[in-house]
Design a protein that fits this description.
The complex is a heterodimer of chains A (88) and B (142). In chain A, 15% of the residues lie in helices and 34% in strands. With 88 residues, chain A is an alpha+beta fold. Chain A starts with a strand and ends with a helix. Chain B has 142 residues and is of the alpha+beta class. Chain B is extended.
Amino acid sequence: MKFMAFFSLVSALPLYGDGAVADVPAVGDVLPAFSLPTHKEDKLSWNPSGNSLREAEQTTNPDAMVLHFFQPDCNACQDQAKALEALR
Amino acid sequence: MVGVAHRGVAGAVGEFAEATGSTYPLAIGTDVDWVRTWARGDRLYIVGKDGMVAYSQYGFREQDPEVWKKVLADLRAGRAASITEATRKELQVGDVLPTIDMPELTGDKVIRLSPESGHLVYRDAKGQERSFKASVGFFSRY
């Protein structure tokens, strides 16, 4: 009897074809301006032309900004957030 | 430092902040078009003051923070990032699948998928074995 196995693994991510993640921004691309709600019911806004990051009425002009996209219930994302917090 | 949730609602992000001790801003970008594109692979970017991506990575490995420190030091010193992406080892066509031991989802026993004598062998939690001609693997973070 022939079988085909299906398995899933926890940890990696969506890769396509040659190993590259399809259609994600690359080094050199500009982070677009945005304004998003925060979990504290504030607004977080970014303006690339003025290099300004605004949250809860406070504006900063960071020399560099780490931007982490996460899923709240993802264990690896939580580990990553802890590592980022330790970096502050 | 900025976090952007690309799935979930404010309550879940609040729980995330509490669980991780995050004190930096956490925004909610669920169902936002540009976030959907930028977030693929739970990605992390380091952006310079020119607004341009200087470093990009997907996933997370323990050694990554040392890379972030180097990139941030470069940018703060006005230099180009000396590292622009994380090094990842990925399986390529022709590689042999390593033996994979995983805890079963409903108990604490281990299930195994391993290449043995030219066949993939699956051993379930009861120790029963089956051989396969092929196996389809789906990788996810859950």
